[in-house]
Amino acid sequence: MRRTTYAVLDAAYRAGIRWIDVARSYGRAEEFLADWLEKRGHGDLTVSSKWGYTYVGAWRLDAAMHEVKEHSASSFSRQWSESRALLGQSINLYQVHSLTLDSPLFTDDPLLRALSALTDDGVRVGFSTSGPRQGEVIRRAFDLRIAGRPIFTAVQSTWNLLEPSAGRALAEAHAAGNLVLVKETLANGRLVVKPPPVLARIAARHGTGPDAIAIAAVLARPWADTVLVGPASPDQLAANLAATKVQLTEAELRSLATMAEPPGEYWGRRSSLHWR
Predict the structure, then answer these.
(1) Measuring CA to CA, how many Å separate 132 from each of 93, 101, 106, 183?
(2) CB neighbours (10 Å) of residue 23?
(3) pTM more than 0.85
(4) What are 227-258's pLDDT values in tens digits?
């Protein structure tokens, strides 16, 4: 796994990618990244990580539970210390992992003050979102203030051809000067394994894979500052990066927009996907 991680990161760096996003709950992702950074010595990268989930799956696909979520001041303190110990000053953005409307974070003043203090340490503070009510979460989180200063200046949300419901809130966040990162651009593989017919037709027209078309559709959003991909091999990375050479027409974008599912349906199906 470490060798594969290095191979993907090396290929990404050669291709010009300069942003790497990890999380405390992504297995040993921070550790692998820290080792790679030390060995390669690259000083021109932006690194973002997340706290709020703890990985407990012990590398077993049949584990009863893979992650434990806890948005508390003590969890933040512990995981920030762990992230800092591995990645040091390399962390540019630290995010609350999977913020939802029911998170206790919204009313936890000590936690909000601790997060706000990261800004004084030169670390940007953000949050990621999941679920059918992402738009509400985005707006509510950006309204949070400590001493009149916004706590969050970045958001990482799911937006893809099947689940575009957060688009308006993300456009508002971008217009207000916040950084917008887009995740799950391939709908956890659904847009690649069995691409919908309209996506397959447009991919064939451009002579590329459905992943490139799906990612190109995200790149076409003017509010998408950073578009994340999660390739498991250099070959997958190369296929994803073909998106940068695709220019979708307005007619194609309208056709792709017909693929959208109701948010509740999308997230219900996502929760039923097998863990990998």
Answers:
(1) 25, 11, 18, 15
(2) 22
(3) yes
(4) 999 999 999 999 999 999 999 999 999 999 99
